[in-house]
Amino acid sequence: MKWPTRSLFLALLSLSIGGTLPLFGQGAAIGAHGGTQGLGLSLTTQFTEKVGARVIGGQYSTDRTVSTDSIDYQGDFQIGSVLALIDWYPSGGTFRISAGIGWNDNQVDVSAPLEALVRDQLPDLPPLDFDLGTAEGNASGEELVPVLLLGWGNPFRGSRVGVSFDLGVLYQGEPTVELEARTSPAVNAIPGAPAILQALADIEESRLEEELKDYSIVPVVSLGVTFRF
Fold it and tell me: How many alpha carbons fall within 13 Å on the CB side of residue 215?
């Protein structure tokens, strides 16, 4: 499922799940927030003085360079998630510990000139007078992921308008990379050349996966406001 189709699906899922929370709780609060998982909305309910539940959704995108040992990729990072959390307030106050699962839409599209892959293997290759094409791919983690957060803010204490802050991690697993050699017409005219370049792209997949392991654990930082009905 491609962006933004996946994000639209996740947003609808968030609304459908979130819409049922107040039916089982003791009231509801809505919120708006911004942070490492983008801009988004939340819906909160509380079952007892110390236990509640939240659904949080958010998304954004950013461009960033992704580098292996010798190749720089243009990376289009597309960040999005819906988190379903149980909130525990140990003292019944504003401090909370939250745990749950997330529907993860974090992924990155990468691209680099195929010539860069060739020169990585053949550094003494003379200058070429034609374009080889582009290596294009996608990296993504697990779709269903665990989340653990510490937070401050309880919309069911004090005034109707409050502040909410979360700090924690989302574990999306080791990324899976798919890299394709999109060869130019000049390369396609050479028998066997597209297959050779695709073989280089297949080798590069594992190098990219190793580089992107740093993104297996995603920090979650969020600041927002809430309004209690």
Answer: 21
- Match 């007078």 to its residue by tokens: 129
Rg of the chain, C-alpha, whole Å: 22
Q: Is 105 helix (H, G, I), strand (E, B) or coil?
A: coil
Could you give the number of structural domains in the chain?
1
Instruction: Name the residue with tokens 């799940």.
Output: 17
What band does 140 get if pLDDT is binned at 50, 70 and 90? confident
Q: Pick 127 or 160 by higher pLDDT.
A: 160
Question: From the centroid of its chain, how far is CA 29?
Answer: 26
Residue 208, SS3 per DSSP: helix
Residue span of the structural domain in which 207 resides: 5-228
State the DSSP H helix or E strand holding residue 211, giving kind and residue range, or none if neither.
helix 193-211
Report the CATH number that the domain containing residue 143 is assigned in CATH.
Answer: 2.40.160
Instruction: Please say whether the beta carbons of 151 and 206 come within 8 A.
Output: no
Angle at which helix 193-211 crosses helix 114-121, to 10 degrees, equals: 90
Q: What's the CA gap between 38 and 105, in Å, rounded?
A: 12
